[in-house]
Amino acid sequence: MEAYKLLSFDKITSTQDYAHDLIAKGSAKNKMVITALTQTAGRGKYRRTWVSRRGNLYASFILKSPERDPRLAYAIGVAVSETLISFGLEPQIKWPNDVLIDGKKISGTLIEYADNFVIVGIGININSCPNIKEYQTTKMNKYAKVEVKDVLNVLMKKIDKWHNADFVIVRDRWMILSSALNKIIKYHGKPAEIIGLNEDGGLVLRDGEKYILTYGDEISI
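Above: the chain sequence. Below: its structure as tokens.
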């Protein structure tokens, strides 16, 4: 299997933005990984600030992707979860791919497409966790003594495995790890039950006797 090319920085504005710059310049290649000890302008979904203190994992994976694939989010959620499991943690996935420990967020993923690539930005709290008003957070070293480099090494292997796995296998594992399966959420402001995933990566909801299929961010958990 093709090896990763690792680009490591002490400090950078954003690993995700650096990956975008590489693609724009025509310098990007499949399986490049940009990491940084700290980020001065780290970001998550909807350009929310991602607090990036030294001692945690901040990495952006550049992967070949000629078209968008909603199934990728689930493969990445499973890959991150399986990484934590290898260090003795017991994670759950909040739809679609935030990872929780004891109900507290420990990892987030940002997936963005550019040209023929997808950039998968992953942050994992290892030695510290930020204070967030909207939700609770936690860190790996509360549960197991680990090093950032060891977590990255395992994560690269897990992404290889789950990114290339048949989606039926990914879907089954995601549903086992899901924190919201069979729970009531809000869909367009109305309650609905999460039933599972279909073969294309769509989220299947149930509203009474009616089933709903969604691919977007219209739900709130």
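Helices lie at 15-24, 72-86, 148-163, 167-177.
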